[in-house]
Amino acid sequence: MAHPHSIEIKEFDILVVGSGLAGLTAAFHASKYGSVAIITKSQLDISNSYYAQGGIAVVTDKGDSFESHIQDTLVAGRGLCDLDAVKILVSEGQECVQQIIEMGMQFDQENGKYFLGLEGGHSKRRILHAGGDATGKGLTCFMLKKVQEQSNIIPFEYTTVVELLVENQKCTGVQAFDFVSGANVIFRSKATIIATGGLSRIYDRSTNPHTATGDGIALAYHAGAKLADIEFIQFHPSALYIPGEDAFLISEAVRGEGAWLLNQEGERFMQQIHPLAELAPRDVVAFAIHNQLQMHQADYVYLSLKHLNAELIKKRFSTIYHTLLNYNIDITTDLLPISPAAHYMVGGIQTDLHGETNIKGLFACGEVASTGVMGANRLASNSLLECLVFGKRAAEKATQEESISAALPEINLIRVDAENENHFLEIKNRIASLMSKKAGIVRSGEKLSEAIEELNFIKMQLPEKIDEYNLLKIKHITDICTLICESALIRTESRGGHIREDYQDEDTSLCMHLIQQKDQHFKFQEIRN
Predict the structure, then answer these.
(1) Is 528 a residue of the active site?
(2) Torsion, Cα of 511, 75, 212, 106 (10° steps)
(3) Which DSSP string corresponds to 25-58?
(4) How many CA atoms lie within 13 A of 366 on its CB side?
(5) What contacts 24+ positions apart, CB below 8 Å, involve 82-86?
(6) Are strands 442-443 and 499-500 parallel, antiparallel or unpaired?
(7) Per-residue buried b or exposed e for 497-510, using 16+ beta carbons within 10 Å of the residue's own CB
């Protein structure tokens, strides 16, 4: 065990923080140009990407087109997508997928052709899958293997970044804490790529792993990076509801294959709400389920696959089928109790089309970034595609940065006090309950104001100078939740993944990005059409 006051210094050309698909993709492409460090607070294979069931949306069929995929993305994004970013996603996405296929990635086929799934918001079958409902795992493991084959990529597991080092508006590296050795580590680099994933674990019910608490967002915000549109949180409509158990994701693709949503009376309800019925965009379906729960004073609705071919369902959704058998639920014969769960952060650290933030040398890609692709509501299965496209773009631009010799900044040494761990969990659970009740699927000015007041009270209990990791995590989570509530309070309309019961319509004058930056007044920014 290192002395708590020891500092190690390591130098690399590129730092990648996070080991989901975006981080692994960025590291792989950056390794062609120099040395790369991947820093991850758990293991390399724990990420949102790993658990993604749905698939990857890409144009491969002759009956499909870039124009159709672009249009579906824009419709789902409710007017807040930047057209140039969406065009890049769709066109370069096809190239990126073809490239990994040539590298050896295998997607599911039927009769010698790729099996294409259909998901909510898509007008064509264009979703590639690997291992049925284990696409995220397949893709992440494939890229992890490619990363491990590169001798100039060095992983640092169980290492958490506690501060981005920024001097004169240039990111020169990060300060990290090694949980195993107990050392504070300074990583110096030409460029740093944040790929830390989402923050949905700040809610009670979430499909995300426990690591998804928004660290990267907090670090970037405190370093002076701009955040965009973080009021938009996507709640996945169909997560298993069993009291006392985690919200297990039931893939969108299940509804794509024809599953029905039923209320407590056993009636289908989506047909009256949207022409695509169960395949409406996620925000529409989640809100409809929320309304059914309120109407019937229930905790869940049902997903029914009983009318579908049982053998096909078992083969197509083998992970879901076998997981639910552990709960004594057979998806081919039983009704599945489901309710929405926090799933995806739609906004994030604002970047340009190459993943660069407003801080020179600081990049972001994947769920943590706001590239302009997702708008107010992510189109299903665009997220893995965004990881491939913008992970590569960020890496290629990051490698062009020049190194700047900088003196070691003054470091606030971080330590871990085991006695604070229970305190952190207690506060985290309290905040998760608060966010679910007051900043969940449906918000109001009154509830958001109450949430901000309580978050500020929690912050006031923290010491002014924080040198302990658990207390730092509390600060980060309260800061992030405050920013979400403040942006949700500012956006006085309902649009995509942000629904206000006191402002139920879209406001055309608010069809703009909402930008937040530390020590700056919020501002609205025009959409790039």
Answers:
(1) no
(2) -150
(3) HHHHHHTTTS-EEEE-SS-TT-SHHHH--S-EE-
(4) 30
(5) 82/371, 82/372, 82/373, 82/527, 82/528, 82/529, 83/528, 83/529, 84/353, 84/372, 84/528, 85/353, 85/371, 85/372, 85/373, 85/528, 86/372, 86/373
(6) parallel
(7) bbbbeebeeeeeeb
- Nearest Cα neighbor of 382 from 205, 524, 252 is 252
Lowest mean pLDDT among 23-37, 118-132, 426-440, 480-494: 118-132
Inter-residue contact 411 to 465 (CB < 8 Å): no
Residue labelled with tokens 């552990």: 326
Structure tokens at 3: 């002395």
The active-site residue, picked from 282, 393, 491, 500, is 282
Kindly report the number of other CB atoms within 10 A of residue 159's CB atom: 23
CA gap 524, 9 in Å, rounded: 40
Q: Which residue has the tokens 């995590």?
A: 473
Q: What values do phi and psi take at 413, rounded to 5? A: -65, 135
pLDDT tens, residue by residue, 378-405: 998 999 999 999 999 999 999 999 877 7
Number of DSSP helices (H) and strands (E) in the chain, helices first: 14, 25
* pTM greater than the 0.90 cutoff: yes
C-alpha of 216 from chain center = 11
Domains and CATH numbers, the chain: 7-232+346-398 (3.50.50.60), 237-340 (3.90.700.10), 418-506 (1.20.58.100)
Q: What is the full DSSP assignment across 450-479?
A: HHHHHHHHHHHTS-SS--BHHHHHHHHHHH
Residues 143 and 139: their CA atoms lie apart, in Å, by 6
Q: Phi and psi dihedrals of 344, rounded to 5?
A: -150, 135
Structure token pair of residue 497: 């993944």
- Two tokens, residue 309: 């071919």
CA 139 to chain centre: 16
Least confident of 97-101, 162-166, 252-256, 469-473: 252-256
DSSP state of 437: H
Cα–Cα distance measured from residue 160 to residue 175, given in angstroms and rounded to the nearest whole number:
9
Q: How far is CA 235 from CA 97, 205, 352, 484, in A?
A: 27, 9, 26, 15
Residue 465 neighbours by CB under 8 Å, 6+ apart? 412
Rg (CA), the chain: 22
Q: How many CB atoms lie within 10 A of CB 142?
A: 18
- 């989901």: which residue's tokens? 20
Placement of tokens 């309304």 in the chain: 291
